[in-house]
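Task 17 of the worksheet. Students: predict the tertiary structure of the chain below and write it out as C-alpha cells. Keep your answer in the requested format; marks are given for formatting as well as content.
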Amino acid sequence: MQTLIPLAQEVGKLLKARNEKIAVAESAAGGLINAALLAVPGASGWCLGGVVLYTLQSRLALKGIEKDMFEGMTGSTEVYALFMARAVRERFQAQWCLCETGTAGPTGSRYGFAAGHACFAVAGPLEQTLTIETGESDRLANMYAFARAGLELALDALE
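Model answer:
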C-alpha cells in the first residue's frame, strides 16, 4: 500500500486544487484504489468513494443499470471500462470516475484474457482508456499493479 499512497496524494492534490471530486469503480483491484485514496488525509474533500463491481450481480445493483445494457460488451475491455466509468460518475455525481476491470489471476478469465490483463477508463471533462498486461499470474502482485496503473491514469488525466 505504501507504494500507492504517493500517487493517491498527487491525485488528491490536483483534485483539491481544482475543487473537483472523484469516484472509483474497481473489479480485480479489489478496493486497493479506493483504499489508497482514502489513506490520504483530507480525502473526504475530494474522494466520494467507490464500488467494487466484481460480479454481474454487483453491477446490476447500481441504480438504473440493466442487464441488456451490457449486450455486445465484454468485461475486461476498454469499452466496458468506459461504460462503467461513465455510469458510476453519473451516479456519484462526480466530476471524475476511474474504472478498473481485469483478471488478477492466477488463471485467465472466461473471456479469454490471461491473468495480468486489465483495462482502465477515466471519465470526466476528458476521457482516457488504457490496457495493461503484466504477464504475471500472481494475484496479489497483479492487484497492486492494477491499482498503480489506475492511479497513474487518473493522475495523467488530471494533469
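Marker's comment: The radius of gyration is 14 Å. Strands lie at 22-26, 47-52, 96-103, 117-123, 128-133.
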